[in-house]
Design brief:
This protein has 4 domains: 89 residues, ANL, C-terminal domain (GMP Synthetase, Chain A, domain 3, 2-Layer Sandwich), CATH 3.30.300; 82 residues, ACP-like (Non-ribosomal Peptide Synthetase Peptidyl Carrier Protein, Chain A, Orthogonal Bundle); 187 residues, Rossmann fold (3-Layer(aba) Sandwich); 71 residues, no CATH class. The radius of gyration is 25 Å and the shape is globular. The strands form 5 sheets. Strands 10-12-11-13-14-15-16 form a 7-stranded mixed sheet, with helices on both faces. Strands 7-8-9 form a 3-stranded mixed sheet, with helices on one face. With 483 residues, it is of the alpha/beta class.
């Protein structure tokens, strides 16, 4: 009886049998078959219909059949095609969000079938993930690094010139990778080094010549484009560039994208204390890429204010800013006092813990009461241990990375309250998070420019607007202004 009730459901049309097949109505009235409901999986917090990916793949003119499976927490696509060298990755990027893109595409002669004529997914060959342009490790350091990368990312083989982030590396894996490197080589490389040197070959050079890791530059090439002017991206308080990767992956333009890192993330050097200082350093880096402009500058949260000041200083120098892109940031004039600034490190660390919980969707089970009676070092160690317990940091992580994050975050938020000194005219694109209670339509930016302020509202809150699937909507909005 229970199974009958589950399979036969009462509707306004009468009693219907629930087959388990999935489909959808298309705008032209046709019905598209997607797949089976038992092919739904959960990966990195997202529910994914494997049949939906297969449907997109099968629409490619050169694909005969397709099947997508989950293998070792990676999406693997199998296709049959007369073209054994078929290239599908760029095609799929046009129609699928980043979290639904297969990690590997395997071309096979024919699909294994069950006796009743369906694809036998369990009999599909084990994937051998090959990477285009593979370059083998050339020395013992590169060999050791390659072993670490393959263990952390779960892809093999990895070439020495392959980009960590293009291989699917994200913020959690980045932290793990640097912790493994610290354990293996008994040397601390700050996370910022991975942004600036995202290949095995480049990291090996840093390990061979550790003095080079102390040469700081805010500039990080995140994606190489072609002819169009680049976009310079400034992160929120704390300087975490990694969360821009989801956005960049969804932007189908031929522009280059450069991130700008704040000083101090190594936990040793002193962060800049004013937005003016931060902008001045960023402009030096921007000029290394493009000395003339016009410039496209993007900033999220605190980064929106730093982007604004950067555009102000560029215009003061007589440069043109083509577009200033502000992601969910209040105009600086709306926050001219520092009454809400925190006085003790425990409060700062609890705020950072809350941000980490939102981004990683994990509970740290830490409170202000847990930290307030501890020394500064003990507070850092306490939060570091909670991050280890939550499986965000590896077991042997130390608190140096956390120290850099805290000091930069504090400096950024304190700089947040400083008043802009000059006002120039530039066009602004303001992208707001739908779930935030904003005080005004333009968040005060219309008072700081004589140019146009265009507003786009995207799903999510201040943080979740930056991750899948919400970031897809943001990317579509941005594309209309970047193309």
């Amino acid at each position: 009886p229970d199974l009958t009730r589950e399979r036969f459901i009462e509707t306004s049309f009468g009693r219907l049998y629930k087959t388990g097949d999935l489909g959808r109505f298309l705008p032209d009235g046709n019905i598209e078959y997607i797949g089976r409901i038992d092919n739904q999986i959960k990966l990195r917090g997202f529910r994914i219909e494997l049949g939906e990916i297969e449907s997109v793949i099968s629409k490619h003119a050169e694909v005969k059949e397709s099947a997508v499976v989950l293998y070792d927490d990676k999406l693997i696509a199998y296709v049959t095609s007369d073209n054994k060298n078929i290239e599908l990755k760029e095609y799929l990027k046009l129609y699928l969000p980043d979290y639904m893109l297969p990690a590997s595409i395997v071309v096979i002669d024919k699909m294994p079938m069950t006796p009743n004529g369906k694809i036998d997914r369990k009999s599909l060959p084990k994937p051998d993930i090959k990477l285009k342009g593979y370059i083998a490790p050339r020395n013992s350091i590169e060999i050791r690094l390659t072993n670490i990368w393959e263990q952390v990312i779960g892809v093999s083989p990895i070439g020495t010139n392959d980009n960590f982030f293009e291989l699917g590396g994200h913020s959690l894996l980045a932290v793990r990778l640097m912790a493994y490197i610290h354990k293996e080589f008994e040397m601390h490389l700050p996370l910022s080094n991975l942004f600036q040197h995202p290949t095995i070959a480049e990291l090996a050079e840093l390990i061979l010549k550790p003095e080079n890791s102390k040469i700081w530059s805010p500039l990080v090439k995140m994606k190489q484009g072609d002819s169009k002017k680049p976009v310079f991206m400034i992160p929120g308080a704390g300087g975490n560039l990694i969360y821009f990767w989801d956005l960049i992956r969804n932007l189908n333009t031929d522009r280059s994208y450069f991130g700008l890192l704040p000083q101090g993330l190594d936990g040793k050097s002193k962060p800049a204390e004013t937005i003016e200082e931060i902008a001045s350093e960023y402009i030096k880096a921007i000029h290394m890429v493009d000395a003339n402009g016009p410039y496209w500058i993007l900033g999220h949260s605190f980064g929106g204010k730093a982007a604004f000041e950067t555009s102000q200083q560029l215009q003061k120098q007589g440069k043109e800013v083509a577009l200033l892109i502000i992601l969910d940031a209040q105009a600086p004039e709306a926050n001219t006092n520092s009454e809400n600034a925190k006085n003790d490190d425990a409060s700062w660390l609890i705020e950072i813990a809350g941000i980490i919980e939102s981004l990683y969707k994990k509970e740290l089970n830490i409170s202000y009461e847990d930290l307030k009676g501890l020394s500064y070092e003990q507070q850092l160690n306490c939060l570091n241990n909670r991050l280890i317990e939550a499986d965000i940091y590896p077991p042997y992580s130390n608190s140096i990375q956390l120290r850099g994050l805290l000091e930069v975050y504090k400096a950024n938020v304190n700089a947040y309250y400083q008043k802009p000194q000059n006002i120039y005219s530039t066009n602004i694109l303001l992208i707001k998070a739908k779930d935030e209670a904003h005080e005004s339509d333009t968040l005060g930016w219309d008072k700081l420019t004589k140019g146009k302020v265009n507003v786009c509202v995207v799903p999510g809150d201040h943080l979740t607007m930056m991750i899948e699937p919400n970031v897809e909507v943001m990317a579509k909005c941005l594309m209309t202004y970047l193309e």
